[in-house]
Amino acid sequence: xxxxxxxxxxxxxxxxxxxxxxxxxxxxxxxxxxxxxxxxxxxxxxxxxxxxxxxxxxxxxxxxxxxxxxxxxxxxxxxxxxxxxxxxxxxxxxxxxxxxxxxxxxxxxxxxxxxxxxxxxxxxxxxxxxxxxxxxxxxxxxxxxxxxxxxxxxxxxxxxxxxxxxxxxxxxxxxxxxxxxxxxxxxxxxxxxxxxx
Length: 197
Prior knowledge:
This protein is an all-alpha fold. It has 2 domains: about 1-15 and about 25-125; about 135-195.
């Protein structure tokens, strides 16, 4: 099974310490002028294709159970997580159904086994467990990373005062921290997937 891990790494997952390029998911560099939201969408689409290719490269005779294969290829979990950032309106039933149909079609056309297709389909259909980030906070976190990249004098508090989606009349340190934490969570995911900031 080490060969499968190597394949995952070759497809550009950051957990490979020997990887040197950041072009794994087709994301542009920081000066490319493409908005971060568009780069995330492109990385998600490319990631789905890369997972399909990775699966196709795995010899059928040495294929472990799909659950084990997913554990051995952490890019799968990261692409599932990225889906929540690309489709921030996850809680709307119609949006979840559209994503599930897209994923099913994409993975079926790539010849993915039912278990993998079903994993992505179910991730699109289910609501997040625990206390998920609100769609508005996800949108603002994406905007915060974009502004932080472009503004050398970026201030989290200043950003929160002008962009916080909460209902408070005066935005405080809690507002700043919720946006900053969401943005840092997205940044860590982007780093693992090699999506250039």
